[in-house]
Design goal:
Number of strands: 0
Order of helices and strands: HH
Largest sheet: none
Number of domains: 1
Strand content: under 5%
Structural class: mainly alpha
Helix content: over 70%
Number of helices: 2
Length: 64
């Protein structure tokens, strides 16, 4: 079950980051874009960890 949650978190964070990057490509220009892309590299991992931990916490709460 943990593997399935990890995969769902992986896909969810991939889509989320892709949408954020697409919006950034469309609306951010200049040196701010470079800063944005550097931050977006870490955004993927942060979103993955957040989504995974929130899902695990919700499952633990249901079990009690």
């Amino acid at each position: 079950m943990t593997g399935q949650i990890r995969m769902q978190s992986f896909v969810w964070s991939l889509w989320f980051t892709a949408i954020i990057l697409a919006l950034g490509i469309l609306f951010i220009m200049g040196l701010d874009f470079l800063t944005f892309t550097c931050a977006a590299i870490y955004l993927y991992f942060l979103v993955y960890i957040l989504k995974f931990n929130l899902t695990m916490k919700a499952i633990r709460r249901e079990g009690k």
